[in-house]
TrEMBL record:
Residues 11-202 form the Lon N-terminal domain. It comes from Yoonia litorea. InterPro entries: Lon_prtase_N, Lon_prtase_N_sf, PUA-like_sf. SUPFAM superfamilies: PUA domain-like. This is Lon N-terminal domain-containing protein.
């Protein structure tokens, strides 16, 4: 577990369009670019082992970054025979970027502020107004529309937070939609945002109902 005192003022960041990490969730990543292999090597030498996932405004990782991201702790990694790494980040806390650090590392580092995201380090969030049957019905239609499959038994057994956060991370939404899910101030607002995105997709990406 990460505590507030473990959170550093500067962290390496990994700008990756469409890749969303949320607190208490896990994100598998495949590292092969030399700069990110160097980043992992440096991160594993730190006590916190944190990497900040952040959405760039443009696809190139050298462009402008969104101000809010989520840091994850490297909790598993394995090396392939050709020198690539498969790692798992466990979501620790969201952060706000206050500036970028100039330096000699091939990867980007940012000054970050953790204030305002204290609940990320707390217990699992609840969503008392969650209408699960209605949500699962809409989700089923969405997955069918997108030609996607899922393990319905596992989804049915998942706690509210795991269900909502996992779907927020896995569903193929646009990067700006992923950012909206990240910035949702509570599990309830994230679920409402997720439901809105699903309903929007079911309407064909427009404000009008699709003819049946």
């Amino acid at each position: 577990m990460i505590s507030k005192t473990d959170l550093p003022d500067v962290i390496p960041v990994f700008p990756l369009p469409g890749a969303l990490l949320l607190p208490r969730a896990r994100l598998p990543l495949h590292l092969f670019e030399p700069r990110y292999l160097a980043m992992l090597d440096d991160v594993l030498k730190t006590s916190s082992r944190l990497i900040g996932m952040v959405q760039p405004y443009e696809a190139p990782s050298g462009g402008k970054l969104h101000s809010i991201g989520c840091a994850g702790k490297v909790t598993a990694f394995s090396e392939t025979e050709d020198g690539r790494y498969m790692i798992t980040l466990s979501g620790a806390s969201r952060f706000r970027i206050t500036g970028e650090v100039d330096g000699f590392t091939p990867y980007r580092r940012c000054k970050v502020n953790w204030q305002g995201f204290e609940q990320d380090l707390g217990p699992v969030e609840k969503d008392p107004d969650f209408d699960r049957p209605a949500f699962m019905d809409a989700l089923g239609k969405y997955l069918t529309e997108k030609g996607l499959s899922t393990d319905w038994e596992s989804l049915g057994e998942a706690e509210d937070e795991l269900l909502i956060n996992s779907l927020s991370m896995l569903c193929p939404f646009e990067p700006e939609d992923k950012q909206a899910l990240l910035e949702a101030p509570s599990l309830t607002t994230r679920r409402e945002t997720l439901m809105t995105l699903i309903e929007f997709a079911l309407r064909g990406g427009s404000g009008e109902e699709v003819m049946q």
